[in-house]
Amino acid sequence: MPTRSGFESAALSERFSGRDALLRRVAGDAPEAWVREVAEHSARQGEIFVELINKCPFGIYLVDDSLTIVAMNARSQEGAFQNVRPVIGRPFEEAMRILWPEAVAQEIVGQFRHTLETGEPYRSDAFVEPRAGGEQVDGYAWELHRARLPEGRQGVICYDFASTALRAAERALVEAERRQRLLIDELNHRVKNMLSVVQSLARQTIGRNPDPAAAQLAFEGRLAALARAHDTLTRVHWGKAELADVAEGALDSSGVADRVRTGGPTIWLESRVAVTVAMALHELSTNAIQYGALSTEAGRVDFSWRLEEGPPRLLLEWRERGGPAVTPPTRRGFGTRMLERALAGDLKAQVRLDFAPDGLVCSIEAAAPALFEERVAPGDGTA
Known about the structure:
alpha+beta; 5-stranded antiparallel beta sheet; 11 helices; rod-shaped
């Protein structure tokens, strides 16, 4: 007794072909009528079959036992074999040599011969090769099956799916995963560095200041400067930050942007250096507000920078004027230590603090060209 699936298969075949209804008609009709109906039915079935094959989302083609191309759907003619004309009736090996370099063509032909001789199917999921001439790289997933042809002959059917776009998407996905891992590692590194900076700020600011309120105010100001520096770097995806933007953010966080005149050429700083420069400017601003030029209404500050040639040197200068008379400090605070040590270390620079009577002058001379770049923005490529 047929199984349930067998009945369903037979019913499906009947709905598709109308075979049983046609046979019942044959028994009662005149020979000429049923012969004509059989011919029309076969023609319709042939048209449906051709339509199905040509609408497949993959290529199908057939070679006979002499490895001659005998049939092919539209997908293959417009895709894999678009450079081969004529294609039907052409020796398969000749077509392969037109499409692929000699070594690749011979490998493909060898797989067809093996399937033809042994009947073993073959499948390739990772075929990515340059076309003949090397100007185009194509990828295909393809498989081979031996087929029975009329008059008892054998042939090989090939099903191929163009996967060039898929391979490109796979490579892009792998690259995206790699970049994501790098970004996560970089984020972990930056978070650890930032926590170290905050720890140092807390230790140096709070631990050495006997006035809790003043210590808290100074600590919050330094954190604000650090945050503004990070905002500047975030806008450029933690690449290089423009010195003018770094200065603007640091001065604005100190509330003195309108009292400090800045100027200089376009200079791009590495991210680590940008944070250090921002912190240094905050310290200079804070000192100027408390003791220097910005402690009076008439006081002003100029912050300028320039690049000198041969060998290249970046020169930065903070110059105060119009404030109270300046005297050298009696002790070295956190700001002084940061300017002379951290800033000098990060910029590989010489830092000079001149406590002249008419105003503090802080001069920074950096000679490490890897830390700065003039004129060209990251990814810009224009002067």
